[in-house]
Amino acid sequence: MKKLIEIKNLSVRYDDHLVLKNVNLSIDEFDFLGVIGPNGGGKSTLVKAIMKIIKPSEGEILYHIPFSKVGYLPQINQIDHRFPIKVIDVVRSGKADILTRNPFKKNKEEIRQAEELLEDMGIANLKDKSIGGLSGGQLQRVFLCRSLIKNPSLLVLDEPDAFVDNRFESLLYEQLKKLNKKMAILLISHDIGTIAFYVKNIACVNVNVFYHQGNKISQEQLDDYDCPLKLISHGKIPHTVLKFHE
Amino acid sequence: MSALINLFSYQFFQNSFLAAIFAAISCGIIGTYIVSRRIVFLSGGITHASFGGIGIGYFLGINPMIGAAVFAIFSALGIQFFTNNGKIRQDSSIAIWWSLGMAIGIIFIYITPGYAPDLMSYLFGNILAVTGTEISLMFSLCILIILCFIFFYRIILYIAFNEEYAKTSGLPVSFINYLMMVIIALTVVLNIRVVGIILILSLLTLPQATANILTNDFKSMIFLSVLFALVGSLSGLMMSYYANIPSGASIIFILVVIFGIMKLYSGLSRRYNHLL
Ligand SMILES: Nc1ncnc2c1ncn2[C@@H]1O[C@H](COP(=O)(O)OP(=O)(O)OP(=O)(O)O)[C@@H](O)[C@H]1O
Ligand SMILES: [Mg+2]
After folding, report:
1. Is B38 an 8 Å CB contact of chain A?
2. Mutate which: A70, A99, A151, vs B, most B CBs within 10 A
């Protein structure tokens, strides 16, 4: 199996606060890795290190694919929802080649791609709306389109299911399953129960990172991984809630 | 009408007419960036820091505008630098530059012997006294801003919208941030003569607020802001000339009136839409 990226002995600190400690993890071609962990466990930090937004304090990340082939959807709370920008421009901002092209040429191909992606997500009608008028779930779909427009080989998603209603959630996961035939996916989510249906492997992030082969995980294993999440059986579908810290 | 045409035969009036146009263009465009990025407070910091340069200019007997430019650019770069690297919160850092600039300005104006000519025009603007040199500088600034926004439009937009994401697409985030900071500083300083330190922030935010009633798109907001700023600065100029009041006050007064009318209009049309 071809490795797309390899994280080696990675540690990340904010000032003196150690957020990730000695992480080793690799993502294979066509992997579908579900990343879980408590709030503040370091999931977003791990992803930001992969996206080169923050510098590791120690260790390194090796990329076996061009970095421009890594698509990214940031956690939604990091975005200014009232910024005056149109949906189509948000999607187009995902193109990585903007520095090298002629700013005066109207980019028909790019516009067509963006429209196609919006169509796929069922929000073609929002194309010329500004993002201020969108719901959380619609916004998530826009950001998913933005991460896809560069045809990534690895798609990194930080809680794409936050603020999404049930119907779109299942739609989203079906979509991801389809995309997974073409690309590897790293997905952060708080909904272990649901993602367990879709992911191939699981990583538990809570300062340390534990890689769990396969998509079936038990409460004992979560406790072993020092990952304070609770699996609750709720009818057939297991749901998870966060355990309170003492 | 002929009185108006007569006015244009005066050099000083031609100058202030051009100043009004250039102020509207630079403030309309840069103000849109400032409002969209929510860095109004930061721009206020740069503006007030430049007062320190005006004080030192008086003290040393050089053109206070040169002092203001130096102070504005250094405070702009300083704020950006500390935001990137420092452990100080950005708003605290801005407040420090803001008050430091004001303090230095007041100290130096106070210890300069004699009285400070034109001090009022720096505080409240005097568009009728703008010189030819200042006009050429304002014109160059407009050209610089327009070129930046033509060549880097999408890059500026993407970085302003989502800086972290822009980093992942390999955009020159740091370079554009510093460039825009310098341009904000220059915009502030070169428009001090038109509306004054106290009121420049309004010229950078009021036309945008009015534009924002009508549109929620960056590019349309730029054009509409320039338009509203033009209406405000030109009619403010006339008001300043005929009523003999500081141009800053008259321009801002008119901008507020335009804002009020637009707000009222959009409110009414929303409410009574079904009746039309
Ligand atoms: N820019 C920052 N400066 C300082 N500390 C930070 C910064 N960003 C995150 N942290 C801290 O790092 C820790 C990990 O944060 P991170 O956002 O990675 O958690 P997470 O697992 O994504 O949480 P959530 O489930 O809430 O999204 C937290 O304790 C947080 O307070
Ligand atoms: Mg997070």
Report:
1. yes
2. A99
How far apart CA A15 and CA A231 sit, in angstroms, is 34
**pLDDT-based confidence at residue A232 (cuts at 50, 70, 90):** low
Q: Is B84 on the interface with A (CB under 8 A)?
A: no
Distance from CA of B89 to the nearest CA of A (A): 14
Q: Hey, are the CB atoms on B215 and A80 less than 8 Å from each other?
A: no
Closest CA in chain B for residue A68: B169
- As a residue count, chain B comes to 276
Domain ranges of chain A: 1-65+153-246, 79-151
Q: How far apart are CA A25 and CA A227, in angstroms?
A: 17
- The pairing of beta strand A32-36 with beta strand A184-188: parallel
Please give the ipTM for the structure prediction: 0.88
The per-residue pLDDT for range A6-43, each reduced to its tens digit, is 999 999 999 889 999 999 999 999 999 999 999 999 99
Rounded to an integer, what distance in angstroms lies between the CA atom of residue B95 and that of residue B80?
13
Report which protein residue has its CA nearest ligand 1's atom 3.
Answer: A14
What one-letter code names the amino acid at A219?
Q
Res. A65 pLDDT band, cuts 50 70 90: very high
The tens digit of pLDDT for each residue in A93-103 reads 998 777 777 77
The amino acid present at B132, given as its one-letter code, is G
Question: What is the CA A218 to chain-centroid distance, rounded?
Answer: 23
Statement: residue A245 has pLDDT above 70: no
Half-sphere exposure of B239 (CA within 13 A, CB side): 18
Close Cβ partners of A65 (under 8 Å, ≥ 6 residues apart): A4, A5, A153, A154
Instruction: For residue B150, list chain A residues with Cβ-Cβ distance below 8 A.
Output: 103
Is any Cβ of chain A less than 8 angstroms from the Cβ of B137?
no
Please give the Cα distance from A191 to A196 (Å, whole number).
9
The pTM for the full model equals 0.91
- For residue B162, give the DSSP letter: -
Q: How far is A70 from chain B (nearest CA, A)?
A: 9
State whether A79 and B162 contact (CB < 8 Å).
yes
CA distances from B136 to B12, B19, B140, B143, B193 (A): 14, 9, 6, 11, 13
Q: Which homologous superfamily is A1-65+153-246 in?
A: P-loop containing nucleotide triphosphate hydrolases (3.40.50.300)
Region B93-100 average pLDDT: 92
